[in-house]
Amino acid sequence: MDLKALKKQEHKKRVKYGYMWALFCAVLWGMWYIPGTTVWVLNPFDEMYGEIAAGSGDGMALVIVAVLITAFNALTVILALAVWNGVLGKFGEMKRTVKEFHPCSKWFFLASIFGGPMAILGSFIAMGFIGGAFAAVAALMYPVVGSILAQKWYGEKISKRAYLGIAFIILGGITIFGGGLITEIGSGNVAWIGYLGGLMAAAGWGIEGAIAGKGLDIAEPDVGLTLRFLGENIIWWILIVPALAIAGFPMFKYALLAFEPLTLLVLIFAGITFGFCYVAWYKSFPLIGVGRGQGIGNLYGLFAVIFIFLFFGDVPAWTILLGGALCLGGSSIMFSEDTGEMESLRGD
Amino acid sequence: MAGNRPVKFRILELCNSGKWNYEIVAQIQKEYPGLKGNFHRDSINFDIIELASGGMLEDIETKVDEEGIYKKGFLLHKYKLTDFGKIRASDACLMYV
């Protein structure tokens, strides 16, 4: 075979695998909203909610329970990633990367601050207060935050096409949030914290992406992700959970009660889907480019709505469907232009 | 220094003046005792692909592996550090600033 044909064949193979990884990411990410929604009605979290709500009110109870759920999510994700890194034989590389705190690993720890206490906690709050479909679709706005930050921070240019995409996504966001709000204002009962959670998810993931990119491009992604979740576990289990326990909330009492078979199973399911959706996401980037990887990955919103319908029989409000479609359309417009990486991958 | 910094840092260093992917992989496998075998060979090569797609390395030459120095019948790529790669490498405290 000649050079040209071989180049074409190599390129085709890479693109095929890249799309496969990106699609895996979307399916796994969408699936994560199933355990994420289910875990709220399981014990000990249900009981914990009742106990705290009796003393400190519903809003406070929701946030405190969401903290414990997020902390367990981080724990099962890092278990899944530890197995993954063990199988791939990457613990040696992990040790080498941790030692490079200044150039490299500090970015992962910084990313974990925005990814964990902001994005994932916000998602769980949105799932608990409003519902899985809303939480999934609200987070679709993260590329807007990410690209505005990249512009301010690294001086990355936003093209006309990207602005068009951003406009679509913002329109979608207004539909998703506004639709729910108008119905709720009509009934006089607004779940403000849930909407705040949705915004936290979008902003947190946007910021996390912009920060993590700086460290990930010079590190092994499997290792980088594990360090990012290591950081998140430190934040929850060493800082926030003990602090809340000292403040008088029954954190450890219910944390120890989480070792029930069904609850554990659901938490492990959350850890596996969430951990591997991140892994698949980062594997797709070098093969098809960050833009396409994110564009396909964003189909998670669609998968989440489908899975939630299949598992719970919930049909989301039409505003969520319309808003989600606008966000998906907008992110396709934003990301489909990004062919720079494709060119450099082709090597011509 | 060899063998105790993250693999990608070392790859960036090696590519300063342009190097073939099989040379990089062989050099890394020599320096890092834990990375022997075909699985790690492919995973080091994937690190190179990641650095190239991140814009830190640039593919300057391609040839077919006729003799099977790396993988017979597949493509070999020669990579060189880009200006962006130099900036990122100096962020990581590598030699050239």
TrEMBL record, chain A:
SUPFAM superfamilies: Multidrug resistance efflux transporter EmrE. It comes from the Archaea. InterPro entries: EmrE-like (IPR037185). The keyword Transcription does not apply. The keyword Coiled coil does not apply. The chain crosses the membrane at residues 21-42, 62-87, 107-127, 133-150, 162-186, 192-213, 234-256, 262-281, 293-312, 318-336. Keywords: Membrane, Transmembrane, Transmembrane helix. This is EamA-like transporter family protein. It comes from Methanolobus profundi.
From TrEMBL, chain B:
This is Uncharacterized protein.
